[in-house]
Write a structure and sequence with these properties.
alpha/beta, 5-stranded mixed sheet, single chain, Rossmann fold, 2 domains, 7 helices, 5 strands
């Protein structure tokens, strides 16, 4: 008999997974509390490296169902999500995503949906890269200086403090800037 599990994740400790759990309940799923795994970890960390997700894998068996509210709960990028879903499918676990109408991501329709979403995400990324490169090329052709502006006043201030015999700590206080900044320009002067 299949059991239903919920994986809810947030990125920071000032966020809560309560809304995700309530969304699953509103969708009509009655999941036992011991089958709800909540975790606070960045989505940039692969699901395979998350402690909570690993504990979830140890609890689940072939035939079980995993519910997530959105794909990004499983990973930040399409490749990570796809790898996670494929791994779950390989051990006989179905994955349902509420944001996609509750579609089973391990079914034919779910796989197609994930491929389309992955293609759209890749397309968006490529468009962003093209726009960025076009903007940089235009700015360069207009004679604009690219990159971080030179902090001439800060450099001169550090040089003057060093020339006047101030220590790096005194320079930090005198110029109201960080020690790392002082050290960077101290070496150059």
């Amino acid at each position: 008999m299949s059991r239903t599990f919920v994986y809810a994740r947030v990125s920071t400790s000032d966020q809560t997974t309560d809304n995700q759990v309530q969304e699953v309940q509103r969708a009509g799923f009655d999941v036992q509390a011991n089958r709800v795994v909540v975790e606070t970890v960045s989505g940039s960390v692969s699901a395979s490296e998350r402690k909570g997700f690993q504990s979830l894998l140890h609890k689940m068996e072939t035939g079980d169902v995993l519910i997530v509210t959105k794909l990004d709960r499983l990973g930040r990028n399409a490749m990570d999500v796809r790898a996670t879903v494929e791994h779950l499918e390989s051990i006989g676990i179905r994955v349902h995503c509420l944001a996609l109408g509750g579609v089973d991501l391990t079914s034919a329709a779910g796989k197609m949906t994930m491929q389309i979403l992955g293609a759209v995400a890749e397309f968006e990324r490529d468009l962003l890269i093209e726009r960025t490169q076009a903007g940089l090329a235009r700015a360069k052709s207009e004679g604009k200086t690219l990159g971080r502006p030179v902090a001439t006043a800060t450099i001169e201030g550090v040089k003057a403090c060093k020339a006047n015999g101030l220590t790096q700590a005194q320079t930090v206080r005198h110029l109201s800037i960080g020690l790392t900044t002082v050290k960077r320009y101290w070496k150059a002067s």
